[in-house]
Structures are given as C-alpha cells and as structure tokens.
Task: inverse folding
C-alpha cells in the first residue's frame, strides 16, 4: 500500500503565514498572556505553521516534546501538534490538563494500525518484543513493550536482546531503515505509512538532485524515498558525507552546523521555517513542495487563541490504557540522552 500526495495539493514554501507582522505581535502577546494566566506550557511540533512554532515555549521533534511534557512544572500542556502527540503528553503527565487546539488533528500513520490488529499480530508471534513508533494511538501503545521515535528507533532496537524476535509497527519505511542500520534480520515490519512521507518519491529525489547537484540532503526515515537515496549513496551517485537520514530534530541540529549553500529537505514542509530561522546563510529546499500534512496545519493561530481563552480541546486517556501505555513510553524515554534528536 503505497500512497502518493494528491496531485491537486498546491505547492508551498513551508513559510506560509496567515498573520501580518503587526497582527502577529498582538496575537503572540495575547497568547503568552493567557498561557501565563493558565499556567500553561505551549509545545509545538516542527511541522506547525510558522506563527505557532514562533510563539511556543518549546518547538521540536516528537522525542524532545515528550521529554518536555514529562518534565514540565506547568499545570497545563497546550499541544500544538496532532492527537497522538497530545495523548502521549497526557500518558506521561496524567495529573496535568492537556489541550489540543483541534481534536480532529489526526495522523494517517497512527490510523494504519489498531489495537485489535496489533493483538492479532502478537498472537501470531508469541514472545516477540513489540516496538511501536510514537505515531500510534494510546490503545496501541498499551499493547506495546517499548515505543520509539524517528530519533531513537535504532537505539531502541539495539536495547533488545539479540535472540528476541521483534514486531515493529506501524511505519514500513522507518522499519526498513532500522533493519538496515541495526543489521537485525528478525524484525517483522507492519505495512503502514504516513501519506505525506510516502508521497516523497524516488523520482522527486532524482529530479531535485539533478537540479541541485551540490546540495546536502536530509531525509526523514518515514519517507518513501529513503531506500533509494541510500542506494544512490551506496552506488556512489550521491556523496555519503552530504547525505543524512534524520528526525526533524536531527535536521534542526544539522541545519545549525551546515556550511552548504543549499540543502534538500525530504520531510513535511513545515520544518523549513525552523531550518531557515536557524541558518539564514543556507538555502533550504523541499524535496517535494507538496509534502504538507493537513492534520498538522489544522492547528491555526485562531484555534490556539480559542483554546487558551476557553480551555476547549481537553485530551483524555482512559487511566488503565494510560498506565499500560506509560510503561512503553517511559521505557523509550529512559534510552539515550535528552536532546532534539538525530539518527
Ligand atoms: P519527528 O519525531 O521526526 O519529529 O517526526 C514526527 C512525525 O510525525 C513525522 O511525520
Ligand atoms: Fe502523521 Fe504524517 Fe502528519 Fe506526521 S506528517 S503527523 S506521520 S500524517
């Protein structure tokens, strides 16, 4: 099941704003005032619209935001991201109120496996260790031994004894990547995918590399093109020292340090705002300029303000499910050093 980004999806720069500079200033002042009043911390994923990335107290990748959610002293967490991320914050901080400015902000990847499907898969492989990407529902996490994100997936796999069979879900491209980097053969990978990343294709890579032959290349491991990029590297058609597979947080770290004139970026286009803010001397170019996540873009400046004014958008997780899911998320958090992440 390989999807493509719908052809009707318009091209974007990744820096689309809906507020003028003056509107941004007054909106941001009100957002911060209300957040202080509510004792709320605002967390934003790297794929959020620019205004929300800029106003948030913390902006980063899934692992970084999970760590902040687990450690914050704030009474409330306002999560500007998608539903599974807000659920993860609630799982880690059950005593806090977690708000998501649009409860319909889902994730096509999280939708690619249900708890029932995972239970059936486990029954076919008794004794296997279940590793689930954080892009899953709380109910799937509750059936999981250890979670992972794109920044720590290989470390999570390496933490599992070599004689154990592993079920990895739900992302087939991340699964293929961790198999490649860890050399583990006994990993069964679920055939799920994210519609945005699956749509960044090998032909996008060929066209963009031909148009920008000296550019560095950053690829998110959820991309449908990851294997073909690494094939180009192994055949000597792309220089290994200029090509990296990274989480969005790893891309931010790489952007800070690069001296390249151009960088091709294969992931959701919202990250481009973050990369350009971190390094104005480099041109960051989307590998596919239609790779926008409609769910991430459901969180708008107006909805964030509304949530802060009204307290609408409460995310709850059934306590029993949360307790079982927490073990899997905490097992992941215990691995590796805090940071914004990279593989
Ligand atoms: P990161 O953990 O790399 O930020 O990825 C989250 C995500 O949803 C990717 O599509
Ligand atoms: Fe889910 Fe893909 Fe959107 Fe990330 S980009 S939130 S994986 S649909």
Result:
């Amino acid at each position: 099941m390989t999807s493509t980004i719908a052809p009707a999806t318009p091209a974007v720069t990744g820096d689309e704003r809906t507020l003028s500079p003056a509107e941004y200033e007054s909106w941001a002042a009100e957002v911060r005032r209300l957040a202080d009043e509510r004792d709320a911390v605002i967390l934003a994923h790297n794929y959020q619209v620019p205004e929300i990335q800029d106003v948030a107290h913390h902006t980063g990748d899934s692992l970084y935001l999970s760590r902040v959610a687990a450690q914050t002293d704030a009474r409330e967490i306002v999560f500007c991201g998608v539903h599974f991320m807000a659920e993860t914050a609630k799982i880690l901080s059950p005593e806090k109120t977690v708000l998501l400015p649009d409860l319909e902000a889902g994730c096509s990847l999280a939708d690619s496996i249900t708890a029932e499907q995972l239970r059936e898969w486990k029954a076919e492989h008794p004794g296997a260790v279940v590793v689930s990407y954080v892009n899953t529902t709380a109910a799937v996490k509750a059936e999981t031994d250890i979670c992972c994100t794109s920044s720590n997936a290989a470390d999570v796999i390496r933490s599992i004894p070599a004689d154990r069979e592993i079920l990895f879900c739900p992302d087939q491209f991340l699964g293929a990547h961790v198999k490649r980097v860890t050399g583990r053969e006994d990993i069964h990978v679920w055939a799920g995918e994210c519609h945005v990343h699956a749509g960044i294709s090998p032909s996008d890579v060929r066209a963009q590399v031909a148009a920008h032959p000296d550019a560095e290349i950053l690829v998110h491991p959820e991309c449908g093109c990851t294997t073909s990029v690494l094939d180009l590297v192994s055949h000597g058609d792309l220089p290994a020292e200029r090509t990296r597979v990274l989480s969005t947080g790893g891309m931010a770290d790489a952007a800070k340090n690069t001296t390249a004139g151009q960088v091709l970026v294969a992931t959701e286009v919202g990250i481009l705002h973050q990369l350009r803010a971190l390094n104005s001397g480099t041109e960051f170019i989307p590998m596919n300029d239609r790779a926008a996540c409609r769910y991430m873009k459901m969180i708008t400046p107006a909805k964030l303000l509304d949530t802060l004014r009204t307290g609408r958008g409460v995310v709850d997780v059934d306590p029993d499910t949360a307790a079982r899911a927490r073990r899997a998320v905490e097992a992941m958090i215990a691995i590796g050093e805090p940071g914004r992440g990279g593989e």
Remarks:
- DSSP finds 15 helices and twelve strands in the chain.
- Residues 153 and 193 are 16 Å apart (CA to CA).
- Residues 82, 107-109, 135, 194, 196-197, 268, 293, 295-296 surround iron/sulfur cluster (ligand 2) (CB under 6 Å).
